[in-house]
Specification:
This protein is an alpha/beta fold and 184 residues long. Helix content is 45%, strand content 12%. It has a five-stranded parallel β-sheet with strand order 2-1-3-4-5, with helices on both faces.
Length: 184
Amino acid sequence: MDGRFDEALHRVGTALGGVDPASLDTACAMIAGARRIGVYGCGREGYQLRGLAMRLYHLGCAVGYVGETTMPPLGAGDLLIVSAGPGELATVTAQMTTARAARARLLLFTAVPGTPSAALADLVLAVPAQTMASDGGDDGTSMLPMGSVYEGALFFVFEAMIADLRGRLGQTAQTMRARHTNME
């Protein structure tokens, strides 16, 4: 394998090794028990959250992406899943505050769990990875710039969660595939 891939996989793998399995199980239980689910993230983190929303839809969950016109209202019995890799992002905090006021539960993914926004969450799932706030600039220490390590780790965390949730929700590859769009 190309050395660049080796380094990238090593950095993402190191981050994944720091994810607490008990927190991952709790996050899956929160998702499985939610009536409706909203997801939100900024920038490239947002793209990872959109991928999670798509897979949750394939599992049969009532899910929407915050900011889209098809996002349902959240309230008691619902869950908002957000990501703030560097810990504090104003738009993420605003969404968390709105969901908390509506009595929805909150699941926060972050690399910096000790922030004021984390206090709003029912569960903080730490993904200890380099983010845009901790990459040290252009000093050449990492081939993966800014938040790429965190964002790459999110992909694998979410895929592991979907595998767990498939069993919890009694879904199969066939039932998931049947929900995939035919409008591509």
